Fold:
Amino acid sequence: MNAKMIIAATLLAVSSGALAADSAGVTGWIETIHRADKNADGMITPTEIMYYDAMSHEAGFRPFMVDHFAAWDFNGDQMIDMDELKKGMEKASMTDKDMDRAFFEMTGFQPPRNK
Structure:
């Protein structure tokens, strides 16, 4: 096998692995929120966010939630429930897919994406 074929095969294997992780290994954002809600009260707190042991495919959960917490805590009680999350998503023009991507990409603030 020549060098170009080896490079092409390597790139194909790496990209296939990334695609498989993106589709099969990603926990949905709602499931991630429920898992992070350690006391199962239906609300996520800054403490739960900071101490949640995110899996590798949820690496963006903490930076995203830290960046959005204050803006999405609409009633100022230092807890965000599912209604506030949905309201925050709507305000930020985010879809469920955008939230899944934000939790996967480890990027924190997510401006609306071009559809």
